[in-house]
Amino acid sequence: MKKISFIAVVLLLIINCSKSSDPKSETEPEVDVSEGQTNWTKFAYYDTISNPRHEPLFTGEVGVYDIAIKGNTILLAGYEADFESTGLIWGSQDGGETWEYKKGLSCGAGSYYTNIVFASDTIVYAVGNCMGDNFIIKSSDGGDTWSNKTRLFYDTYSSYPYFSAKPLWFFDEKRGIFGNRKTTDGGASWTTIEHLSDFPNFQKNNSAIVSHFFVNDSLGYCNSQKKVLKTQDGGESWLLIYQDETEEFRNIYFLDEVNGFLVTKTHLLKTQNGGESWKTAYSNEVRNISFANQHIGFITTVNGVYKTLDSGENWQENYTSQFYVWGTDSNGIPTTFAPSIVEFEGENIGITTGKQIGLSTLPNGKAYIARTTTLGE
Question: Is the pLDDT at 351 greater than 50, yes or no?
Fold first, then answer.
């Protein structure tokens, strides 16, 4: 009788242990992804075990290369990967509360989306990469549906190696610039910009155009990995205004006609005279920059998100990546999330995201998105 009772106890313990190890078990505690900082809200694949926001396709690496925001619509361009990467566009139509896949891209290793922009409330363009072959696709319903048949421009050159490369810019639904080429018919045809003909669409070349930024329809700036150029006629002609052969430029951002920033691999530069001269604004590696208004802006760094209240003169830590430690990988190394991209649409909403590696040991989900609706406060 005692032997039977002992066996029953052992079986009960085994059953309870198996339930607690099951990631879908109702007895397992839910995951609180908002723990840590209150100024940004983290979003995971699973906010709780019973409430999936975004079902993962793989258990490996997740990466986001670009963010586009229009009202409550948020689009992310990037990839998911185990052995080979699959390019994906994720979307939310309720300010980040729920997410769903919008467009996939699977053509072997090296498939991903690198750049995504709104040309209007409904027209969206995205840059995809298949094994080094890049193309542009188009959506006419705010990123909800995409079609391979809308491939507008196809060229062979390397992928974008930097966190914030943004060579694609659209003024409206018809007029846009991609690297050293322009379109006036919504991407149906592209022509090389004569003044940028020395900047080939080959990303590993130091002359390649990495980023465009236009203050208005006429005044704009672009940068390669070593040079900054300026246009005052909508991109028809360009003038070299700054170069540094010892540095690697990532992207360029302007608040108005004269005040702007240049993101580099080692620091952040600021100009107050339209690029005639530059000074150091932040002395560390910067990945991306975005402003909510003329004074309040954000940068992503290796340590997290930093914020300015005085148009980039001073920066203070606003969101540290240390709160993204989710455990250890198979080698016992902590898995952390280091934000690489930040994007604001005015003062209403801001999104920061990046990639997190080594998540296969975390059955409860993967956090790689954080949102603020209070300017990070």
Answer: yes
